[in-house]
Amino acid sequence: MAQYAVFMFERVPPEELPAEVMQAHMDMPEKVTALGGRIVAGMAFEDVGTTTAIRGDELTDGPFLETKEVLGGLFIIEARDLDHALALAKLTPIVEGGVEVRPLLDFQVL
């Protein structure tokens, strides 16, 4: 199956997510499997203040873009096609924000 990255954007910091949202994250792999997909990996990012951006030889503190939403984490999922990936990504629990889905190329560098 094809793989997709599901990027989670939130206005609520991870440490302040409601308990029911955290539980929904824990329950998501089972729900995705029940719909015929698979979560390959799921990770949350540290606070945005820990970000270091690299452009050419220049290193700067913080992300490339200023925004009200923060990239909070990502899932790598396997799905039959983009429509299936979008259906699975809609299961992602978000308090105030959204998700983005991007198809991944089969480009292994490790």
From TrEMBL:
Pfam families tied to this protein: YCII
Domain of life: Bacteria
Cited InterPro entries: Dimeric_a/b-barrel, YCII
Domain YCII-related: 16-107
PANTHER family named among the record's database cross-references: BLL7171 PROTEIN (PTHR35174:SF3), BLL7171 PROTEIN-RELATED (PTHR35174)
Family named by the database record: Belongs to the YciI family.
Name of this chain's protein: YCII-related domain-containing protein
